[in-house]
Amino acid sequence: MLLNRLLCVLTLSALSCWVFTSAAQDTPSAELAMLLSRALHGNPAILAARDRIEQALARHEELLGFFDPGLYAAGGKAERARGVPGGSGFHSVTNDSHEIQVGAEAALQPGAYLNVGTVHRFLTRDSDYNHLYQSLIGVRLRIPLLRDSGFLQWELQRCRAMAEYHAAVGDMVAVMQLTQRQVESAYINAYETLAVHRVSQLAGKRFEVLLAEARELTRLQVVPSYQIHPAEMEYTLQKEEEERSGQAHGVSLLRLGGAVGDGRPATLAFGPERLVQVARELRELRPVHVDEALARRGSHMLIEHRVDAVKADLRRTEDDLKPDFYLHAGATWMGEDPHYPLGSRTIRTERGLGGEVALVWERPIGYHAERGRLAQYRARIAELEHSRDDLRVTVETDLTVAALAYSRLKARIELLDRALESAAGALEAERERFRLGEGRSRDVLDAEKDLTSIQLQQTRAAAEMLRARNDYRYAAGYPDAEPALAPPGPNQDADHGTLQ
Q1: CA distance linking residue 488 with residue 4, whole number of Å
Q2: The whole model's pTM is what?
Q3: Burial classification of residue 386, based on how many CB atoms lie within 10 Å of its CB (0-12 exposed, 13-18 middle, 19 or more buried)
Q4: CB under 8 Å, gap of 24 or more: what pairs does 490-497 form?
Q5: CA–CA separation, 217 vs 157, rounded Å?
Q6: What is the distance of C-alpha 500 from the center of its chain?
Q7: For the chain, what is the mean pLDDT?
Q8: Cβ atoms 438, 479 nearer than 8 A
Q9: What is the DSSP letter of 345?
Q10: What is the pLDDT of residues 256-300, one digit of tens each?
């Protein structure tokens, strides 16, 4: 059990190093890596998957009990006893005697069952003696020759237990990968809502400045007084939008804490500009073949090892279709004495040594149960293989869709950068015209809203780009195990590495 516990700890440590990586403590990668580390040690879904691994290890430990020796002891008295043909369980006591029986049975490699036992009797009605003591010591060997030859049934049970263990490991990898995706998605969403809230705050400040300018220009009679009303309306609406975006950001932090799952609140260490900054610095994704991605996906590992477990059940059932055919061989020695319990004489028997050799064959008349299990297991294997094919199609589609979205969004961000510069210039021009009394407050408001709209589009495009990258890495099985919101370093591949 200690070895299994150590194996479990080593497995979990390897999985955590594979899926969740650490980073320098002053980078966004480190901030997200800390959240992922919290999820690894406190997320209920991951803890449940860890418990399933320990259950699988315990089932493997249980199978080692097959070679535990069994002990047998019985004692009693019989008068005019008649044996029941075909009975099982307790070995009957010799008729007209007092008897004590002790024995042991053990399974021995490469495939035999050994029985060792001794019997001490006191015969109360003997034809030649008023009473007689008998002592019997025997050894018997039973060797399966067809069904369960070489302990095949136990070996297949062990193979199934190992397949279940590896399936549990694959399940935990799948849970960890899904948790990482959920945490990273919630993390990106938190920074997106933070950036949207910041855009709303900046727009509100610009509207406030415009409203103050309109009032001042109206007081100086540079512009008519009705120019104030549109500015007041847009300022009020923008304050409402600011409240709404602030509420959305608060909810996103709660969602991030829920994705981590350890019950502690989640906070962000960087400012709202981080989202667009990272998106600008990202480079092209490294192509990943679908077979390479499937080899790293925990859900694919889970299916593969479940197939192995069912195949072990199938082979056991195929072995059950064979008849039971055993070789029995035994040797005994019996001593007798009319006066002492431990005798060495031969009174009723000619010789003390004896032996037996027998071949035993048996089988049921029909194999309905076994054939039913065969059909069930074959259908189960077909189901799992189709599920594996479906996963392959899903992964291939997700890789293609995410890569396409990523490349298109990168081009969109570049276009929005240029549009943002033009919108800022147009806004400044409209402000100047309004100050000179040549323009209307509505023209300035429209330019303000255009700038705000482009900033929001840029923020959302950056978030969508990071989500596309996150989806791509999840579909690829996290080939780099690198958290989101971390652009590659100067000497690293396009989608590998962290900021140092």
Answers
A1: 39
A2: 0.78
A3: exposed
A4: 493/286, 494/283, 494/284, 494/285, 494/286, 495/283, 495/284, 495/285, 495/286, 495/469, 496/286
A5: 89
A6: 31
A7: 81
A8: no
A9: B
A10: 999 999 889 988 888 888 888 888 888 888 899 999 999 999 999
